[in-house]
Amino acid sequence: MLKVVAKQFVKADKLEEFLPLAKLLVEETNKKDAGCIKYEMFQDVSAPLIVTVIEEWESQEALDAHSKSKHFQELLPQLGAMCAKPAELSLYKKLF
Are 35 and 62 contacting, i.e. CB atoms less than 8 angstroms apart? Predict the structure, then answer.
């Protein structure tokens, strides 16, 4: 099992535009991507322009397929354009 933590830094004037697209990505991923255990988005309580996706995948192959999916390929560039800087990505494997 793999976990991904992807922290996005949304531009202040783009948050209201960012959130509906981000919600669509979450919904499409949970509905369509085989091997997706969990795909959730959270907003930092003290810094609301930081939006983080926490993902859980059965395997690296499932994560790779997600990265190639139509919804990911279409939505990620749009979301990235609304961010002040590139996302911080961390990939974790379960130990225990």
Answer: yes
Task: Specify whether the CB–CB gap between 92 and 2 falls below 8 A.
Answer: yes
The answer to pTM > 0.70 is yes
pLDDT at 66: 97
User: Crossing angle for the helix pair 70-81 and 15-32, nearest 10 degrees?
Assistant: 160
What are the φ/ψ torsions at residue 40 (nearest 5 degrees)?
-130, 155
Structure tokens at 46: 């003290």
Range list of H helices, 37-82 = 60-68, 70-81
Between CA 76 and CA 4 the distance in angstroms is 15
